[in-house]
Design a protein that fits this description.
Blueprint: H1 10-21, H2 28-35, H3 39-48, H4 53-71, H5 76-82, H6 88-99, H7 103-111
């Protein structure tokens, strides 16, 4: 009998997403493939844990965006491209949805200015 693969955890998904953000392609099917499971299996696994792929992805993107805004002098457009956004306005809208403020204002507050 073949050994059963270890069940995929939310943390496993998060680690794969974190790695793949750097490549700019965090499509659900690519993440599932990296984990060695089908898209549907990944969706079921996450649903069983009360979370969606989109929720995990958005948390990962938000945390990465915050790190870039706090620790670098990169322009908003550059950060948006690093996170896989086609343009800075899409990133800015997403960041505002996540944090309640635009990235420039968030950066300014964090810098204490």
């Amino acid at each position: 009998m073949c050994p059963q693969p270890a069940p995929v955890t939310v943390e496993d998904v998060r680690k794969v997403i974190d790695t793949m953000i750097r490549d700019g392609d965090v499509a659900l099917n690519r993440v599932a493939g990296r984990l060695g499971i089908s898209v549907r299996s990944l969706q079921r696994t996450l649903a069983d844990r009360g979370v969606t792929y989109t929720e995990i992805l958005e948390v990962a993107l938000f945390e990465r965006a915050c790190r870039h805004l706090e620790r670098t002098d990169r322009k908003i457009g550059e950060i948006s491209r690093l996170l896989g956004y086609r343009d800075a306005s899409n990133f800015s809208r997403a960041f505002q949805r996540w944090s309640g403020q635009p990235p420039r204002a968030w950066r300014k507050i964090r810098a204490g200015n």
